[in-house]
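Box S2. Input/output pair 1.
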Amino acid sequence: MAGMEVVHRSVKTNGIEMHVAEQGSGPLVLFLHGFPELWFSWRHQMEFMARHGYRAVAPDLRGYGDTEAPPLPYTSYTVFHIVGDLIGLLDALGEAQAFVVGHDWGAFIAWHLCLFRPDRVRALVSLSIPYQPRSPLYKPVQSWTHAYGNGFYITQFQEPGRAEKAFARYDTLTVVKKFLLINKSDLLVAPPGKEIIDVLEVPSSLPSWITEEELEYYASKFQKSGFTGPLNYYRAFDLNWELTAPWQRAKINVPTKFITGNEDIGFEAYRMRDYVNGAIFKEIVPNLEVSIIDGHHFIQQEKAEQVNDEILSFFKTISPL
């Protein structure tokens, strides 16, 4: 079928060169990956949506894969920078609006795309990370450290170079496996004197949803790019909090479907179940559907067919332009 192959190209946007993968034609679906991932995380969804008449586009986000990583510190990795990259990408693609699908950090960015520029989003599917209102009083890193201690992975990621040094004790493939193959719902907290990368385990055998060759593809890209760009997203958490004060109590009015695995690492450990099923989430995202399915954190890869069906069925309910 014409246009069904994955096409790779580089797009100039917001002062950087962004690598994008594209498949199919029709209404645009923009796929946004998380940590430690790439456009490749959406390989199952891209092929599926292309077969069903959509134009699937998945970039490597700023600092990841074959997209440029600004050498400046975390101050170049705020949600405003990343959303700005995506607005420039939509312009370069010649698209006024897009359906958006985000997972993990990609979901966090997608929520803010809907917050800042709802005019560019037809509908959103968010995987694993719900939108949470900004605390008016407490910076996020301070709150998480108070709740989970200095061994909390986000707290450990704050110091420039610390996590990179710890990661360097392992080969890149092992680092990728330690994160991508998480299958527990435990808190990501290291005991005193340990780094989180030391605590994470590599399973004795691979799960059925990913192959050694696919993991090696991830590793080859991180071997080239390093982890500083992705870690800078975490280092910008408090700066994001400061800069988003004007959006205090703002709602997300874009039609949204939230999908999470019932064994997601954060679903029980961080009390996400109570929040997702509670009134606050539905109040700040009024046009919301929630779907909880069997699975873990990297749900779009682990349960690709079910996630594909959830995405397609939801987008079909959205009125055409």
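Box S3. Input/output pair 2.
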Amino acid sequence: MIGLELRQLEYFVAVAEERNFTRAAARLHVVQSAVSAGLKTLERQLQAELVHRTSREVSLTEAGHVLLPRARDTLAAARAAIDAVDEVQGGIQGEVRVGVTSSLPDIDLPAALARMHADHPRVRVRLSHRPGGSRDLADDLAAGRLDLALLSEPGPAGHRLRLTPLVSVGMHLVVAPAHPLAGRGAAALAELSDDVFIDFPIGYGSRSIVDRAFIAAGQSRRISIEVTNAEAATAYVREGLGVTILPDAYNHPGPTLRIIGPGSDNLTWSLSLATARNRHPGAATDMLAAMVEETAHRSRARRQRATP
């Protein structure tokens, strides 16, 4: 890649990930014509077409697919070199792309981001969610589209990630006050065959855990409503529209029951801090990760003090 400019590779990666020149330009805070011209220059130097252009979005050519992971690695190496110089000179700068799940119990992420901004004002943090929950976050992290992620169940991409556990709790059944099981302290999954469930979409960590528990118990269930956060799940349960199984880290305003019997051993929910195994995280990413871990540690300590 001698003769290629890092900026051209940055334009290419942004276009490849956003699938759109306008969104790529907005992400990089440049005009669209600069992105288009930079990509054309890169294609001319490589003597290869990298993207198929249409009026609505772009897609990668075979050459583009080959170049993308190498371009990401090159940019990551350049960032690491800059980080090393910045650390020697006493300052950290750059960008950290963070992916998060819809709910983060016991993690005061706003406080961690505020401290990061106060201590390292030259670091830009881009925070985003993914429609497919933890599995999408894991895929994007492994592919180099994110630097750091807070996720539950990484799915197939898990072996490509470094996972630092932050929270690990059991899960309880949440029912409406008028539900036949509301007066009980515990229930088995087999007793829920006639109930309908409120749950997260496929790909969300909590959904994957509960699905595995029912399979282990040899039971099936019906899901009537899919939601993206625990507050919505409990709201539907409160109205008698179904039941749900949620991690203990969430507040449960309604009656909760301990789950016993076959499958119950599978009901442990965890939240981890994740980075890709094949890339150095960089100084800014490491610093933010340490701040997030600290908030989790303080939350665990408060919970332990509050437990009788």
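Caption for Box S3: Residues 202 and 230 are 15 Å apart (CA to CA). The radius of gyration is 23 Å.
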